[in-house]
Amino acid sequence: MEDKHQITVTSPLLPDLDEFHALLKEIWESKWITNNGSFHQRLEQALAEYLKVPYVSLFTNGTLPLITALQALRITGEVITTPYSFVATTHSLWWNGIKPVFVDIDPSTGNIDPERIEAAITPKTTAIMPVHVYGKPCDTIRIQEIADKYGLKVIYDAAHAFGVEVNGESILNAGDMSTLSFHATKVYNTIEGGAMVMHDAKTKKHIDYLKNFGFTGETEVVAPGINSKVDEMRSAYGLLNLRQVDDAIEARRKVAVAYRDALRSVEGITFFDDMPGVRHNYSYFPVFVDKEKYGMTRDELYFKMRESNVLGRRYFYPLISEFSTYRGLPSANPENIPNARRMASSVICLPMHHALTNSDVERIIDTIHK
Ligand code: T4K
Fold first, then answer.
1. From ligand 1's centre to the CA of 182, what distance in Å?
2. Does pTM surpass 0.70?
3. Are 62 and 188 within 8 A, CB to CB?
4. In the chain, what are the domains?
5. How does pLDDT run across 249-303, given as a tens digit for each residue?
6. Is 159 in the pocket of ligand 1 (CB under 6 A)?
7. CA atoms within 13 A on the CB side of 36
8. Residue closest to 59 by CA, chosen among 190, 160, 183, 194
């Protein structure tokens, strides 16, 4: 009988249960379960080494470091960002009372188009918040040039960019700060989790205060902080997952190669190729459907795939600028963001994770070939 099990867009990387159990036993015996425990400290250190960055501060998800980075840098007024992302990017601005200003994307990468940033700068602009969408690196050099020229801060939403390097250097070192998501659906996960990457010890200390209500000691609070402390169980889980993340990325790379080999000849289906000098993490595999050439709309293909139990996802449709909270903003005007609209209306992210089998990949490709 034909196997039609569900193939989901992703599947979490899970540590070995016996190894995790052994660490849980250690935590139980120590009776120290949260508040900067030893596993928490070890994970921050291990991540800084793995990611080739000077400092990492763990957070309980990928949204709170965005909100906290804006607080720490005292960003106000207007921030230039992309509509082509997960809604948390723009929400972090809204939670800080900042007005998002959407700038269109570069269709060759899906990332904010640096050449359109200057036109969106006003006297109220204080920062740029780009996103390395699907883990594809933004043009960080050009963005920094513009930021320096206008005296703006740059906070990268690097939720998708775990382990991504350009010419051997971590993409997370760009800008003033970068944030990561370690959600279950990401290349590297701590179930729920996230992190902020910063350049110096002073900032790391300040951020560590902010994620602990602003406490600097038992009786002193220096800022209106938040609670985003990661517990010992998730930290131990994260240490175990870090050991297998390279194998997971390699497994993902093989899936990407198989997709590209099979889909390059399909008229009306396009995708991104690897960028020279970049260590990709293959966090997502978006394909773009041209309805004239493919003979079917994106949604027709999407629902046809679902009928075969192949559950791709339309990340990022609708655009953030189309949600009710944001669509009244002047920069949400569809005429301002034609490339983002085109991408959002043509994208399907194919299933992409470490545990896909060859027959899964064949089944997925078949649904597109048919
Ligand atoms: N910035 C960017 C650019 C982001 O993409 C995100 C999050 C953030 C910031 C914020 O970071 P976090 O605060 O979330 O850490 C997912 C994730 O919830 C979200 O983390 C992610 N981006 C976003 C792009 O996707 P959903 O609602 O699409 O996930 P869900 O629950 O539908 O899961 C998708 C598939 O994954 C399921 O069909 C099966 C599989 N799955 C999922 C979970 C949760 C599993 O197999 N096991 C699981 O436990 O949002």
1. 10
2. yes
3. no
4. 17-241 (3.40.640.10), 245-369 (3.90.1150.10)
5. 999 999 999 999 999 999 999 999 999 999 999 999 999 999 999 999 999 999 9
6. yes
7. 10
8. 194
Residue 220 burial (C-beta neighbours within 10 Å; 0-12, 13-18, 19+): exposed
**DSSP structural state of residue 164:** -
The sign of the CA dihedral 357, 7, 361, 252 is: negative
- Tokens in use for 227? 């609670």
For ligand 1, mutation pick of 185, 192, 234, 283 (most atoms within 8 Å of CB): 185
Query: Look-up: residue for tokens 């960028």?
Result: 275
Structure letter (DSSP) for residue 295: S
Tokens of 212: 């602990």
Tens digits of residue pLDDT in 77-103:
999 999 999 999 999 999 999 999 999
Residue 356 CA to residue 353 CA, distance in Å, equals 6
